[in-house]
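Dear colleagues,

As part of the handover before I leave the project, I'm documenting each prediction I ran so the next person doesn't have to rerun anything. This entry is a single chain, and its sequence is reproduced below.
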Amino acid sequence: MIKQLTEFARRVQDEDMLALRQPLKGLHIKMRLMADTEGRVTLDEHNAEVVYWNGKKEPDDFIIWTMNVIADAWMVGTNKCLDLPEKGIHSASPYCVSMKRDSLEGGDKFSKDKVKITARYQRYFSNSLIFLDEETLPELGVWTRFFTEEGHVMTFLERFKELYESVDMSEYVTFYLDRPMEEYSLPHQRYLADKLFNTNESKTQNPDNPLEIMGTSDFFNGFNSKKPYLEHKSATFAISGRITEAEAHLLRRFQQLMGYRILPNPLPIFVSTQEAEALQQELFRVAKIQFDGEHRPSHKSVIQALLENRQREGLGNYYLLYHAQGEKILDFDFVPKFEYKLQRENGQPWMLYHSLFTSKVADESISNVFDFQDSVLPVLFNNALVVKRKDKPSLYNWFGDLGTKDSSTLFLVQTYRQTFYDFIYKSRRSAITFTVFYRIMRKSIFSDLKADKIEKGYHTHERFILEKLNIWFSFYHSFSSSPQHTTDMVNHLQSLRAFTVELVKKDSPVFIEQPAQFAFVSGQIIRYIFQQISSEKQPHEKLERFLRAKSGDQLKSEITKLYTQYRHIKVSGRFERAMGQLMACSDEQLNADALPFMLAGYFSDNTLFADKVKKEEIPNEDN
């Protein structure tokens, strides 16, 4: 992984990073040292430059200056803070002190810290001043005392109360000493030389270049020296590998780039020797065009642009990296070939038929994996995996914590989100099998059935169930390579509805002969009885006992019990004919694939009612 990431970082020009990164959100304060006529140095607190920047306007010259200064004044990572172990001061320069407002008095972190930040300023300067030459130190005494004198910082901020109270607890309060850029750069280079590697004890000369230092990578890496039970006692070596100082700098550059939220997440890192450079530069160009200063370009939009610009149908030979704000790598995997389009055997795109069980939404073409992600997954996982938001970009919970408290949904997402991530982003089409898709649909719909209640005369979860049935029948055969499951379920559904219309006619010549017909008619009968029981609607949770039937005879027995329980209800001739046909069927007429057909019968327009609307459709009807 290190080889691929350092090569990626080497392709990134410094001007690219400077052009795209954003200043810190929060309060920026620049202060100056001044000398009186007798040469005494004081800190000019009364003429400080104080600006609050929240990212909602173009940065002025001062804010741009702060952005450039921070590049030479920031920590390598929280494990290399200069106020360890509390990790509250994120700058790493004797000329700069930066912390989130939360770490200052009044913040939650301040109240939780055993050693308050007011007591850690001295530690911070003790650790940062060592990176300066001795002759520079005396004049900085007034600068350090500004922080180490009890209550001085908060007294100063009180003078800018309105600006300070605008700062969110997650935003920064940053103090800068007015110094030329080169003066910031020198101590920071010394800081990096000390902190870039995991530990100084591992440093050694490069055997191939004695002028070059090597050490163990600090890039998402740690040692277990304080936990002997985690050490490899049987290993013949103390360290498995070292990297050069140049590689350590490149890894830091890469980590910075991830933290700037400039590039898409997940990020493709191309490695094909002939095209990698061109593709990577094209990715940078697209990202810069799409970056709006706050929201990173989406993986979807960048990939689509690369495909369109190069007139391709797919990409390949790249590593896919998913990270959390540049702080943690969550997934790193090779993608030999990315297949963008979703097509049937006849070359036509996949279709989501919303009209199968609902009527307010037009049918939708699902022509690529991102269409599937954005149109299907929010419904399938109850807006917990792909979170659709009104007037805002969707959220994608591929890794990390989930925002749902629904245990059934939580189980489904935790079990299958890696599967769908691989299917969409890595083109592992075999990741979702017919069995996996069947289990997800069954579990998800059963969850909605159990949760359904009647409120103000309406079913609370019926819309969710119908949307999932649209998905199930639209993609029933899309994830199967078996001839057993290649039936066009959309056409099959229409034929079942037409079959039932014929079945309930007086002196009908058709009979139930197929398991799908048996299941569909069962669903129609159950829903008919539920709707005849009383004027009050029956919650769909009562359907579950029928869906769990293991055989045709068991299902017929459950339906008979229901009918006998409510034998006082008046039924139509259509119902009687359907019921008679069903009871005449053999046990073999229910198989493992019956569930979607029973649900389809239950939620389709019911043909068993004798009403005037159906008279034209079914002639010679008796009541």
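The first helix runs from residue 2 to 11. Confidence is low (pLDDT under 50) at residues 222-240, 612-623.

All the best with the project,
I.
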